[in-house]
Amino acid sequence: MKKIAIDLMGGDFAPAKIVAGALAFAKDNPDVELYLVGIEKNFKEISLPSNCRKVVVEDYLPMDVKPTEAIRRKNSTMYQSCKLVRDNVVDAVVSAGNTGALLACATFVVGRIKGIERPTLAVPIPTKDGFCILADAGANIDVKPFTLLQFAIMGVEYAKFMGIKNPKVGLLNVGTEENKGTKKEQEAFRLLREKFGESFKGNIEGNDINMGKVDVVVADGFHGNIAMKTMEGSAKLIIEILKSNIKKNVISALGALLMKPVFNKLKEKLDPRKYGGTFFVGVNGIVVKAHGNSDEVAIYHALKVAKQGIEISLTSKIEEAIKDVWNSRDSGN
Amino acid sequence: MKKIAIDLMGGDFAPAKIVAGALAFAKDNPDVELYLVGIEKNFKEISLPSNCRKVVVEDYLPMDVKPTEAIRRKNSTMYQSCKLVRDNVVDAVVSAGNTGALLACATFVVGRIKGIERPTLAVPIPTKDGFCILADAGANIDVKPFTLLQFAIMGVEYAKFMGIKNPKVGLLNVGTEENKGTKKEQEAFRLLREKFGESFKGNIEGNDINMGKVDVVVADGFHGNIAMKTMEGSAKLIIEILKSNIKKNVISALGALLMKPVFNKLKEKLDPRKYGGTFFVGVNGIVVKAHGNSDEVAIYHALKVAKQGIEISLTSKIEEAIKDVWNSRDSGN
To answer: What compartments host this protein (chains A, B) (predicted)?
Structure first.
């Protein structure tokens, strides 16, 4: 039986929406045992299905908690959820809590895969024909070229997990020529070409991400974070411009009504909830970060992502892929 | 009489569209004398209006030219256009050629304003209620905290030139808290707060840019370039999703037809041509970079921007603003 822990107190809509999503998932997935990690009052007035277990702790972390504090507050729902993975009580953990705090707990409580310098937040980004994987999307803001290579390797494994065969890799840069960027990008370019050969499509620019030029976009967390968040802002701007102009005119409003299925398609395509949650890839266990503003649908999907991660043994796949690089690196030196 | 040089051989659609835009502008602006800098064959079969002058040179730069090469090829249309500014023959220059090459010519041929470490490419970006200025948008990819302060000062003067009173300033970062980012951003945060006081709104994130949280977004050229280009890609993705789904269904197509004025509004709002051209701010003269894919409308607007720059004496305004900082810095040390 697959076992997943869920942090009931993480997320803007905790605990109500988290509990609701968890219970709905438990009902549909009798082959999963769910460990609900919460504080005493989370469990009042709810009756748990037989495949749910109650784990009561004393503390929980606010959404603006610092990573260092997250590590110190050992009785929190987040810390204890991660500890269940480390102690092999569960196979995976899901939390919608603070990203930095969860990364800290993933890294220091669950631990890293041997050879991984830093786990990466690998995030699916919508493209014209599907999606691409952005690694890193903000977990590690200042990294070395070799860390970028590790992000690429983890991103590729993650892309394969998401169903992409022979993923194409690109490095996020300020131009497509080989000599673009700082020394860091230039050195990363060389490492990526050496490792991925034909699958490495060279440097890509910001406008190539959503166009789906590659399947795995490699970036340090600063660049990845700017790209990901700028996209959110642009989508919001466009939708607001459309909305405010539709209101100004009856004919446009009628047009918008007729176009409703199209707008729904757009909304669905851009909806981050569709992807449910994202892994901290490189952690020695499955840690799924659900979006901070997750509702019950998002939590349901995040749990599904965790379950799939268990089913395909994502952690050991990453471990194998990284081992290969280290071996070839050692033999090369 | 205001005098402007235009590089006829810069841009993807040079020379035809550049010539067309220049002639249209000359016709509407009899108070401007236009120096058309081109190669011999550009002037065949065109008759120049009385306020146009022909400047024939021997060389021109390809769009993928390296900055170092741009400086070496002294007989190119771009180099010679910039030289006309340096020699005070004209008051401003417009080119749609390669960005790096033009920056190099602006910096080394026209020269920098005293005290300016690096000129910045300051670009207007659409927001909910208007636009904001992004400085730097890709001219300088690796800079020091003090250079970011200079970008901010130049961005503020540019925002004022564009009609924004009391511009609010923000630093592009990976989170809003003061301690976010690398040491560079943390130090820049301190310098910006010291200089701008209440007008400095602290760190902003990628999604805040298009929402218009601030009027001047300060960033190094790497971050600025990623943000600007990612926006382009996102807008393109959304428009493509809408288009492809509209085609699938007659009712949606009818809806789209009724919504045409709304889509036109959107297009206008996102159209980079509207802003025409952008200054390399910090150069000791007015150098306007038009978009590489400028058509005649874009060139017309870029020339208009150059003319406005002359009218408000943008260069001396920047010079004054920078002098202030240096004075306060010197007295502080």
So the answer is: Cytoplasm
Give, to the nearest 10 degrees, the angle between helix A16-28 and helix A296-311.
Answer: 50
Closest-CA distance of chain B to residue A141, Å: 7
Å between A124 CA and nearest CA of chain B: 14
Max distance between CA atoms of chain B, in angstroms, equals: 71
3-class secondary structure, A133: strand
**Host H or E run for residue A160:** helix A145-161
A222/B221 touch (CB, cutoff 8 Å), yes or no: no
- Interface contact A256-B255, CB threshold 8 A: yes
Q: Which residue is associated with the tokens 């990364």?
A: A103
pLDDT tens across A285-320, in order? Answer: 999 999 888 899 999 999 999 999 999 898 888 888
Domains of chain A: 1-116+282-312 (3.40.718.10), 121-273 (3.40.718.10)
pLDDT in tens, A109-139: 999 998 898 899 888 899 988 999 999 998 8
Taking contacts as CB-CB distances below 8 angstroms, the residues of chain A near B221 are 174
- Inter-chain touch A226–B206, beta carbons under 8 Å: yes
- Beta-carbon contacts of B42 under 8 Å, excluding residues fewer than 6 positions away, are B8, B9, B15, B19, B36
Cite the DSSP H helix spans in chain B: 16-28, 67-72, 77-86, 99-105, 145-161, 183-196, 206-209, 221-246, 250-258, 260-270, 296-311, 314-332
For B180, residues 6+ apart whose C-beta sits below 8 A from its C-beta are B173, B174, B186, B203
CB–CB of A11/A64 below 8 Å?
no
